[in-house]
Amino acid sequence: MKIDSQIRAIAGVFIMLSLVLSYFHSPYWLAFTAFVGLNLFQSSFTGFCPMEIFLRKIQPGKE
Questions:
Q1: Would you call 6 helix, strand, or coil by DSSP?
Q2: pLDDT tens, 2-11?
Q3: pTM for the full model?
């Protein structure tokens, strides 16, 4: 799986998890949902994605 696909999958899991946690635990989890969304938005303009850096470090040689 390519890094771009992994980032989309991880972002989707984070968003779904935070929505479930906000429903069952605390609405403050929606702040995490907003953080993930804003990070996806800014990375579309800047090309900077912290998750990409992390994935490249744990999977050397993957593009």
A1: helix
A2: 888 999 999 9
A3: 0.82
